[in-house]
Amino acid sequence: MIHMMKLISVNVGLPREVSAPGQVVTTGIFKAPVNSPLMLRTLNLDGDGQADLSVHGGVDKAVYAYPVEHYEYWRGELPEIDFPPGMFGENFTTEGLLEETVLIGDRFRIGEAEVVVTQPRLPCYKLGIKFGRADMVKRFLASRRTGFYLAVLREGRVGAGDAVELIGRDSEGVSVADITRVYAFEKGDLTTMQRAIRVKAFPESWKEYFQHQIQKQQGAQR
């Protein structure tokens, strides 16, 4: 499937206040690499926090992973910006795990922990604040380089350099990239939506959204 998969960096940060045009925003998007292994728990990593729990965090979004491979693309797009690990607010900067090949429901062993892939990341306005660019949310989604969220199946210590080992897959074969594609670009692909809502690890809120899209489009076809 994929060559060597590993954790390049583990990044954490607690919410902080930042100034944005016309407002002060509390955000947990600022993450910095840590040098020693940390406990990964059901809701997040030790030392990490999210500001707005209505859209961030929770069981289905305990960890955000972002492929190190995308950093080169963004350096080319935004040469004036520095890109240390954790720049996208990710907890795990990974190698060898790309959206096209990682499936919703993939189970991985990382260090002592076990995780499952739940969904792609849909960017929120705080990404624009972090980058100081109003167009960043649109560019991020358009690039389809979304990264993905993980739920924690078994708590344990994880650290930079840990191997990421695939230990199980969902039979529906719906990739992270498929979800982003049918959500934002090919909204008429009902077949992929129907497969997605059968994936056990796919969050209920997404299933309801796709179910609604399917019914709406089937109603329109009648």
- Indicate the low-confidence ranges by residue numbers: none
Under CATH, the topology can be stated as M1 Pyruvate Kinase, Domain 3
Overall structural class, as computed from helix and strand content, comes to alpha+beta
Q: What's the helix-strand series?
A: EEEEEEHEEEHHEEEHHH
Please, how many helices?
6
> Which strand-content bin applies to the residues?
25-35%
Distance between the termini: 41 Å
**Global outline:** globular
The CATH homologous superfamily is termed PK beta-barrel domain-like
Oligomer: single chain
Strand order of the largest sheet: 4-1-7-6-10-9-8-12
Q: In total, how many domains does the architecture comprise?
A: 1
Quickly name the level 1 CATH class: Mainly Beta
Helix residue percentage: 25-40%
Radius of gyration: 17 Å
The total beta strand count reads 12
> How is the biggest beta sheet arranged?
8 strands, mixed
Report the average pLDDT across residues. Answer: 93
Any guess at the CATH architecture? Beta Barrel
Task: Please describe what this structure looks like.
The protein has helices at about 70-75, 125-130, 135-145, 175-185, 190-195, 205-220; strands at about 5-10, 15-20, 25, 30-35, 40, 65, 90-95, 105-110, 115-120, 150-155, 155-160, 165-170. It is built from six helices and twelve strands. The chain is an alpha+beta fold and about 220 residues long. The longest helix has 18 residues, at about 205-220. Helix 1 links the parallel strand 6 (about 65) and strand 7. The chain has one domain (about 5-185): M1 Pyruvate Kinase, Domain 3 (Beta Barrel). The model has no long low-confidence stretch (mean pLDDT about 95).
